[in-house]
Amino acid sequence: MLLSTRDLTKTFPGTRALDAVSFDLKAGEVHALLGENGAGKSTLIKCLTGAYRRDSGDILFEGQPIFPQSTLEAQAIGIGTVYQEVNLLPNLTVAENLTLGHQPRRLGMIRSRAMNAQADEMLSGYGIDIDVRRTLDQYSVAVQQIVAIARAVHLSGRVLILDEPTASLDAREVQMLFDVVRDLRARGLGIIFISHFLDQVFEISDRLTILRNGRHIATCPAAEVDRMQLITLMLGHELQQETATRARPVADGKDAIRFSGVGRRGRIAPFDLTVHKGEVIGMAGLLGSGRTESAEVLFGAAPSDSGTVEDSDGPVDLRNPRAAIAAGFAFAPEDRKTDGIIAELSVRENIILALQARRGWSRPIPQAEQIRMADDYIARLDIRTPDAEKPVGLLSGGNQQKVILARWLATNPRFLILDEPTRGIDVGAHAEILRLIEDVVAQGMSILVISSELDELVAVSHRVIVVRDRQHVSQLTGEDVTTDTIVRAIAAPDLTPEATT
Amino acid sequence: MSIRALPLYATIAIFLLAYLICYIQFPAMLSTRVIGNLLTDNAYLGIVAVGMTIVIISGGIDLSVGSVIAFSGVFIAVVLRDTGIHPLVVFAMLLAITTAFGAAMGGMIYLLAMPPFIVTLAGMFLARGASYMLSIDSVPIADPLYQLMQRAYYVMPGRGRLTLLGMIMIMAVVVGMIVLHRTRFGTNVYALGGGEATARLMGVAVGRTTVAVYAFSGFMAGLSGIVFSVYTSAGYPLATVGVELSAIAAVVIGGTLLTGGSGYMFGTLIGVLTMGLIQTYIVFDGSLSSWWTKIVIGGLLLMFILLQKGLLRLRIHQ
Description:
A: Rossmann fold, 2 domains, 6-stranded mixed β-sheet, 35% helix, B: mainly alpha, ABC transporter involved in vitamin B12 uptake, BtuC, two-stranded antiparallel sheet
């Protein structure tokens, strides 16, 4: 084995990001690492490259235990990494990027000609013919990606980790990159390939390893699984899940919000959606399928460039989030750390934020009212905090999520969009958030829940919309809402019963 | 070469054009005398701008240099007045002090992860205060070496004088060019300006480079202080207020991107000479207020900022 991990464990406050993961990489193979967000892929990679320090377990390089403390040390051992965002300097020349830190010198001065020659040599065999004296930013992302690979291979030369390398490439560029990858495989490198494009995974990989919730789920040759099995393993559930039965919401169309033909070019194909009062709509799909993009169109964060939105009072203005909030919409985004909470502000300040924004800054909410509201929501949502003045950043993930929910509930929206509301929070808080969703729906609020956890979707949703390849491919209602049907719809459209959209 | 070098070409073109305009109006301006004076009068600014160029390309800023020049002058004057130490030894002492001062600021910027603006602003007040501590009044320097240095020049064809001070400036620029364009340190400076996190991932010793960048700027500020004290034969704590801003202006007019990562040392020389040329023109004219210098420099700066924004957009659209 070229590179192995044994019982690798890494814990962050509140979550176990890696739970005794064992993983093997052979020389001369492309090994895909699969899993949804939060499955532990990045954590595993960061432990391998020294960006994180593991809590326990071993990393073996050619059988020898290694303890990389930094990416540079990992590189010196032989493990190179290329990230989605090219980690090179766009303002330097290609040659400078390739040789940075080991430029040929004479008497302390860089020998430009030798440096350029060395860069040319490093790039030979990668099938790109470029002028290494030009600055990197004059070339396409694909070329930059290959330059990054050339640097990584030159400096480490044994293991190459490709973290979502194809995310911003077009089809032709992906082929160009894959040619390079195949060539490196033939040269005996061990390559770890991370991508959420399953077609690409099947095209290039020899073996697959699937992670879920920080645990190793399966490792198998790519030829022995199909898409369906793979998605089942990634999303993780038993196929015989029973159907959730629940009363249909009031669907008389009276208080419905009708989206017709809304979409945004390049992000999500136009779709129709009618949101009834008191309804929970689930949205399922793999990472990058267009789920979040749909939510952003619905909330005006990335405004629709087509279609219309209407309710019983006429057209609804969704040009930007402000307009959407004014129209009674609310959106709790996927990454609460960067898009949701303001860590330095207190629980109270975070809760009143959206309501205050809606009132306008010229009409501040009186302090007493703020305190009353904060205490009310802390009690109602059971937010565990010593008091309302504690900075939100110090709370656990689940409680932070509840604060965001409180923020939006305080505005009393009619349509609430929750993008991955239960990610990275513990089981107890998980159940509480689901119960909360049911509570507010009973009061007549409509909710769109985006989630990778199918059990959760099945448990709370009246309807489930399935998104694939940036399109809304099907809609499952009533009896059809089962984890099984959802997986089938994600995997292939033909298998879906009653594709209604 | 690339569109990256365009601001440099623009700088050179503007300088030549400005010189042409001056020449048409005052043919006497095209003489080695004027050129010699241009170099001598702007020597201290050119030297300090060399350090500033490296700082700005690294993505930083050094506001302390004006005060450091004043401190240098006062320090040299006071030490020469009160002790019998040889001026050359005093120079060495001074350069050691200003270099260490710059290094200390660089260290703070890196270790405390503080914005260079704040740290060097503190440095600016410190150095200015230190010069007042040494003397409140102007201290004249009457050392024989000073008289020798002032009189040292090479007569160019056309009877223009290439003074020692002018030569020191040219040498500083040449050293700056070599350091910036021909050494690993120079490449690291560009790398830092291109993106600190990426530079660190690629193995650049970010801390060491940051310290070296500000130490270099401190050294150049000290050298500039020596040149300024020779130029004025005195040390005065109120001298060179705002020179750091003139230096920044010269660097930007020289085509260096204020956000870091892009620029040329030669451009800075042209930037300094352009600013000097405007001043010379006003002297030749005789009727214009010297404040016109500031107005023209302001206009030039604005133009270069717009040019850089335009280029940035061009590069994105490529």
